[in-house]
Amino acid sequence: MSANDEEILKKVDQWLAYADEDLRLARHGMTLSTGVPYRLIAYHAQQCAEKCLKAYLIFHHIDFPFTHNISRLLELCGEKTSWTKSLMDSEELTFYAITTRYPGTEEEVTGDEALRAINLATRVMESVSKALAGEGKVIDAQAVD
What we know:
The protein has helices spanning 3-29, 38-59, 70-77, 95-98, 111-134.
């Protein structure tokens, strides 16, 4: 394995670790007894999905734009695989990337929407992890909990 390959694998691991942190934080937010920040939970779920897809692109040496658009990232991933078709409903996470972060642009996010966002992000993480493992990338089991 070349030094360049090792660097790519290190970057993939970093992106997946950050994605895992976003998902764990989103899940933890749902356990709060009061003042549950559903908009932030949905935001972190979106961030998880985005980072997982970008990790897959990095693994394949595919340049990607600085975007939060899940549709665009799925499209780019789809150039190498077909599993992205089963994740098209995760495109709805894109909404949470911007509108939930800034005052005046947000719409209320419900508990059900936050839970759906977590479930979508979990599916993306599982799909990417499975795809990478199938392509020879050793995946840290903790990142898929």
